[in-house]
Structures are given as structure tokens and as C-alpha cells.
């Protein structure tokens, strides 16, 4: 499956799922634009390494996805966008009545509003070349809920709603918009929430992994970033040209329960 000649922008892609998705898109031949809110040598080195490993054009562009104008500037600066993967995301775990307002605002901005801004900036570019794919990394928490993650769950449900709306608005064009809903993937984001989960559930690390996280996943395994990258490449393929406005769960059976 070749994506040669396509340019993919992946938000929040200097670690975890975003980096895994960027790798699989580059492996399929796409030029890739990596992004995060930092501007370190290692961010640019990451892109350079991907470029030389897969023989594609790979760049890193700093843009803070909590700021609407920077989301739009990322797309403008990239200059071309055939594939947009809205992946940047953060998480916070706390009961609703103790949820810090600034965390709520940041989660909604980075996990949901950023996808609105980047999509709004990318659609005219896709229309110009007559082809486009928007892939939103939502979550099993975009389809189901669990306690203590109100902002994240509200944002991810919002991403699923945005996905369906963009799909309907582009339905007659050669552009698709879909969401991938991962279950648990052991990335830095999940590692960072384990201590909070230990606190709110009063459990040790292994029990949180077994009883809180993987208990939701009938496969009893974490999904991998390579599997999420592979699903993204599939959604960018011609085989998926009539798949739009839907969610694909990569969750070991979580949402079948
Ligand atoms: P991660 O922490 O490894 O990656 C998050 C990425 O977002 C990083 O590259 C980080 O630099 C970037 N980011 C954070 N704030 C940003 C900002 N203000 N501007 C630009 N970039 C920013 O976590 P991950 O698990 O790889 O998460 C990636 C996406 O997958 C998120 O949207 C997350 O909600 C979703 N997801 C993850 C899991 C999981 O189990 N790991 C499950 C379902 C959905």
C-alpha cells in the first residue's frame, strides 16, 4: 500500500501513538510532519531519523495544540496536507467535584478543539489536490465512560461527534474523516496516569494495570502503537475510500462488552 506523494501531518507525534502512526505512514511512503509544543534538538532529530530510515521527507514543526491559532499555523506552515491525524492529547484523573478547572480547559482545548482548528485549516488544502484523509485518534472513552475522567471522556465523545459531522460535510468529495478508538496502549500518557489511578482506587501499580485497565480489555493485552499506525494506513488506502464518519475500535474487545 503506497502513500508516496502524500503529505501527512500528525499532531502530538514526538512520542507514543502519534510517533507510531508517523512511522507507519512513513513506512508506507508518505512525507510526514511531526509536531508537539516543544522545540528541542531531539524533536527535530526524531523527524530526521524517520526521514532517513524510510527515505521520505520528514519535518518537525513546533505548535501548541492548546492554542487555536497555532493549530491553524501548523497546517499553513506544512504547506500541504493530504492526511491529517489529530492525535495530540492529555489526560487528568480526578472526581468531577475536585476536577481543576484549568485541567478541564486544557483537556478540551488539546484533545477536542485542536482537531476543529487543524481540520478547518486542512480541508481547503485537501480540496485543492482533490483527495484527503482526516483520522482522529479518539478513544474507547469516546464511546464509553468510566469514573474520574470527565474532561477526557467529554472531549473524546466530542471528537467522535466532530468526526461524523466532518464526514457528512465532505461526503460527496474524495475526502474521508474517521476516528480510531484505541483501548489501553502503554504509552507515556498511560504511564503518567497510573500513580493517580493508584491513589483514587487505593491499589498498587500491578493491580491498577490488571483490575482497572486491562479488565476493560477482554484480550487482556495492551494494543500497540504499530497496530494503531497500521489502522491509520488502512484508513488512508483506496480500500477505505467509502469508509467515512465511522469509528474503528482497536481495543481488544472493550466496546463489545
Ligand atoms: P503520549 O503522552 O505519548 O502522547 C501525547 C502526544 O501529545 C505527545 O507527543 C505530546 O507531546 C503531545 N502533546 C501534548 N500536549 C500538546 C500540546 N499542547 N500541543 C501539541 N502536542 C501536545 O500519549 P499517547 O497515549 O500516545 O496519546 C496519543 C493520543 O492517543 C491521545 O489523543 C490519547 O488521548 C489517545 N489515546 C491513548 C490511549 C492510550 O492508552 N495510550 C488510549 C486511547 C486514546
TrEMBL record:
<dbReference type="InterPro" id="IPR002347">
    <property type="entry name" value="SDR_fam"/>
</dbReference>
<dbReference type="GO" id="GO:0003858">
    <property type="term" value="F:3-hydroxybutyrate dehydrogenase activity"/>
</dbReference>
<comment type="similarity">
    <text>Belongs to the short-chain dehydrogenases/reductases (SDR) family.</text>
</comment>
<dbReference type="Pfam" id="PF00106">
    <property type="entry name" value="adh_short"/>
</dbReference>
<protein>
    <submittedName>
        <fullName>3-hydroxybutyrate dehydrogenase</fullName>
    </submittedName>
</protein>
<dbReference type="InterPro" id="IPR011294">
    <property type="entry name" value="3-OHbutyrate_DH"/>
</dbReference>
<dbReference type="InterPro" id="IPR036291">
    <property type="entry name" value="NAD(P)-bd_dom_sf"/>
</dbReference>
<dbReference type="InterPro" id="IPR050259">
    <property type="entry name" value="SDR"/>
</dbReference>
Amino acid at each position: 500500500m503506497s502513500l508516496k506523494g502524500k503529505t501527512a501531518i500528525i499532531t502530538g507525534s514526538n512520542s507514543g501513538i502519534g510517533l507510531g502512526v508517523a512511522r507507519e505512514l512513513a513506512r508506507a511512503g508518505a512525507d510526514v510532519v511531526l509536531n508537539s509544543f516543544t522545540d528541542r534538538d531531539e524533536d527535530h532529530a526524531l523527524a530526521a531519523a524517520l526521514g532517513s530510515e524510510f527515505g521520505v521527507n520528514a519535518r518537525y514543526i513546533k505548535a501548541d495544540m492548546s492554542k487555536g491559532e497555532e493549530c491553524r499555523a501548523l497546517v499553513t506552515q506544512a504547506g500541504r496536507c493530504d492526511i491529517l491525524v489529530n492525535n495530540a492529547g492529555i489526560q487528568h484523573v480526578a472526581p468531577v467535584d475536585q476536577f481543576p478547572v484549568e485541567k478541564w480547559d486544557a483537556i478540551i482545548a488539546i484533545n477536542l478543539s485542536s482537531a476543529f482548528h487543524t481540520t478547518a485549516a486542512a480541508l481547503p488544502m485537501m480540496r485543492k489536490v482533490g483527495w484527503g484523509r482526516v483520522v482522529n485518534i479518539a478513544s474507547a472513552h469516546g464511546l464509553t465512560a468510566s469514573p474520574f475522567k470527565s474532561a477526557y471522556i467529554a472531549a473524546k465523545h466530542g471528537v467522535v461527534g466532530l468526526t461524523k459531522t466532518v464526514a457528512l460535510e465532505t461526503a460527496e468529495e474524495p475526502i474521508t474523516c474517521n476516528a480510531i478508538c484505541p483501548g489501553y496502549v502503554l504509552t507515556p500518557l498511560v504511564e503518567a496516569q497510573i500513580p493517580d489511578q493508584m491513589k483514587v482506587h487505593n491499589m498498587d501499580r500491578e493491580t491498577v494495570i490488571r483490575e482497572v485497565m486491562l479488565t476493560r480489555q477482554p484480550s487482556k493485552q495492551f494494543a500497540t502503537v504499530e497496530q494503531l499506525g497500521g489502522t491509520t494506513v488502512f484508513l488512508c488506502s483506496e480500500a477505505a475510500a467509502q469508509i467515512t464518519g465511522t469509528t474503528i475500535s482497536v481495543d481488544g474487545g472493550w466496546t463489545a462488552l
